Amino acid sequence: MKLILKKAHLGFYVFGVALFYFIFWPFFYYCSLKPGRFKRLNSLRRRWAITGSAFAGIFYRFEFEQPVDWRKTYIVCPNHTSNLDINAMCTLVNANCSFMGKQELEDGIVTRLFFRTVDIPVNRDSKMSSFRAFKKAAEKLQSGVTLIIFPEGGIANDYPPLLQEFKNGPFRLAIDLKIPILPVTAINTWQLFWDDGKKYGSRPGVCKYHVHKPIETSHLTINDADALRDQVYHVMKQQLDQTQSTAIV
Fold it and tell me: Which of 17, 115, 121, 205 could be stapled to 52 by a disulfide with Cβ–Cβ 3.0 to 4.6 Å?
């Protein structure tokens, strides 16, 4: 019975997301027609993410190690356990931003408009596609657009989820352009809505995220990319371990 209710809630959540997408769609479409309107498109997407989640009783809470100056440009690196992480990052980043995600999102019913305008699709099995994607990401960062990239490269099949190895790309890019990394740890989102929700459904609640202090890269060289990757991994793993031990106590 509990699983049936969670599956019903998932259907309600999907309905809400779709409903508000179509309400926002004329404004999304108008803003997608010209690059000069992309900042406004991102602002609308942020409102849609908040509204669509709240409709199903899902909210986002962010704990900050220190205030984030969104006038600066960052590479935001969250761990990835749920499709809700995308909504959460839209909610968190109060600035013009761009996601880097798998190429399949370019053909998604809801994600298509964004991945053909403000976001960056990448086929990680193709070196050429990855090269083009990171070149485009570099151009966006240099123009002041914050990049959101999940360093695990996707949601793993583990349940409960484990922090997966990080890809090198975002850390090399951060060092090349001297852009600070902003690690974000998703604490409990998977408990409300794991992966796409199809297996275990979803439930209302508060998704908690810990926003770590930015890690500067201006003093680093490309030879430090692996060390930077490991540092970010350790910071997030430590936060997850600490949260888990506190919950047990």
Answer: 17
Pick from 94, 39, 99, 98: which is nearest to 67 by CA? 94
Per the CB < 8 A criterion, the answer to whether 88 and 68 are in contact is no
**Residue 92 to residue 49: CA distance in whole angstroms:** 10
Label each residue of 59-71 as H, E or C. Answer: EEEEEECCCCCCC
End-to-end CA distance of the chain: 30
The length of the chain, given as a count of residues: 249
Q: Which amino acid is at 177?
A: L
**What domains sit in the chain, N to C, each tagged with a CATH number?**
2-248 (3.40.1130)
CA distances from residue 10 to 5, 48, 57 in whole angstroms, order as listed: 9, 17, 11
Confidence (pTM): 0.94
Per-residue pLDDT tens listing for the chain (249 residues)? 699 999 999 999 999 999 999 999 999 999 999 999 999 999 999 999 999 999 999 999 999 999 999 999 999 999 999 999 999 999 999 999 999 999 999 988 889 999 999 999 998 888 888 999 999 999 999 999 999 999 999 999 999 999 999 999 999 999 999 999 999 999 999 999 999 999 999 999 999 999 999 999 999 999 999 999 999 999 999 999 998 755 543
CB distance 9 to 203 below 8 Å:
yes
Report the relative pairing of strands 120-122 and 58-64 from DSSP bridges. unpaired
- How far is Cα 136 from Cα 110, in angstroms, rounded to an integer? 22
Instruction: Report residue 119 CA to chain centroid gap.
Output: 12
- List the one residue out of 190, 185, 188, 173 whose CA is nearest residue 233: 185
